[in-house]
Design goal:
It is built from ten helices and 14 strands. α3 packs parallel to α5. Helix content is 30%, strand content 25%. It is α/β, with parallel strands linked by helices. The model is unreliable at 1-16 and 328-332 (pLDDT under 50). The strands form three sheets. Strands 6-7-8-3-9-10 form a six-stranded mixed beta sheet, sandwiched between helices. Among the domains are: 1-94 and 211-243, Rossmann fold, CATH 3.40.50; 244-322, Alpha-Beta Plaits (2-Layer Sandwich). Residues 23-252 form the ABC transporter domain. This is ABC transporter domain-containing protein. InterPro entries: AAA+_ATPase, ABC_transporter-like_ATP-bd, ABC_transporter-like_CS, ABC_transporter_ATP-binding, P-loop_NTPase. It comes from Arenimonas composti TR7-09 = DSM 18010.
């Protein structure tokens, strides 16, 4: 069942089943002791094996929401079910299903890479599995650093260790909270290759990122959170189709001081100090209106020397949604 972004009459989460979402949130809210509300009755279903991107401006509630699911933050209200386990009633079985790569890099600086990986796996009650740890370290290009003290590693290598720690207990759900912030291009490329491999093996990936082009490339679905409210959840392709726009920009032979009255009813705006005319249209519509626009320009004696088209990116859609408070689309 697709996710919802509303909080009205939330049905109870269903038990784990083949077709059931792997993660279900119902009415999850968080109010801090100072009275500030960080989350407002979040309802969300995460599908098994998908890559879900949670987008939002700073302070929107992304990290609080992730912390609530991972057992770091105690919600003030609502229910969270992880692969059939109620987080409040069965915290350990639920937490064993989850791996978290947090924004901050924190680990024991005096331990070796191998020791911290082994400890992290044991922390969740899993028996030693050197072969699995080796696979993870090799995938992250850390195998040659397995005996190195973490304090001796570069920032990028420490970030790789954080990712490795999250994978030691073979989680069903992997949270990546701004995982590529401040890392080098090589690590970013390696990490996304690993994400794709994990998804192919059935791991569900939930990520937050400020690099919206990453979400556009990687995600199956997009969620947008703002001021603690989930304002939209939608399949990426559907979102791009519904809210994406195309723009035709005409470089004029002579600048215009204003849009002529004869064109006032069209979605036009002037740019570049009147040297360009920008026409916004629905690329999915039966008629774009471009032919009619060009004919009218000719009748008005407005010449142009060049034209090009541009399609909205996910970043354009995200910025527009946050400005409008999510009224541009609706939830899936």
């Amino acid at each position: 069942m697709p996710a919802t972004a509303t909080a009205t009459s939330s049905p109870p989460p269903t038990p784990a089943a083949a077709g059931a979402p792997i993660l279900q949130l119902r009415g999850v809210g968080k109010t801090w002791p100072n009275g500030q509300t960080a989350l407002h009755a979040i309802d969300l279903d995460i599908r098994r094996g998908e890559i879900f991107a949670l987008l939002g401006p700073n302070g929107a509630g992304k990290t609080t929401l992730i912390g609530s699911v991972c057992g770091i933050v105690k919600p003030s209200s609502g229910t969270i079910v992880v692969d059939g386990h109620d987080l409040a009633r069965e915290p350990m079985p639920a937490r064993r299903k989850i791996g978290l790569v947090p924004q901050e890099i924190y680990t024991d600086a005096f331990e070796s890479v191998w020791a911290t990986m082994r400890f992290s796996r044991g922390l969740f009650g899993f028996p030693p599995d050197p072969a699995h740890l080796e696979r993870v370290l090799r995938a992250l290009s850390l195998w040659d650093k397995r005996d190195a003290k973490i304090m001796s590693l570069s920032g990028g290598m420490k970030r790789r260790v954080m990712i490795g720690k999250a994978l030691t207990h073979e989680p069903k759900i992997l949270f990546l909270d701004e995982p590529t912030a401040g890392v080098d291009v090589e690590l970013r490329r390696d990490m996304w290759a690993m994400v794709r491999e994990l998804r192919e093996r059935g791991t569900t990936i939930i990520l937050t990122t400020h690099y919206i082009e990453e979400a556009e490339e990687m995600a199956d679905r997009i969620g947008v959170i703002d001021k603690g409210r989930l304002i939209l959840v939608e399949d990426k392709a559907v979102l791009m189709r519904k809210l994406g726009r195309k723009q035709l920009t005409l470089q004029l032979q002579a600048p215009l001081a204003a849009i002529p009255a004869a064109l006032a009813g069209l979605p036009l705006e002037l740019a570049d100090d009147g040297h360009a005319l920008v026409y916004t249209f629905d690329a999915q519509g039966e008629r774009t209106g471009i032919a009619g626009l060009l004919r009218q320009l000719g009748e008005l004696g407005i010449g142009y020397r060049d034209l090009n088209t541009r399609e909205s990116s996910l970043e354009d859609i995200f910025v527009d949604l946050v400005k409008r408070g999510g009224t541009a689309g609706g939830a899936a």
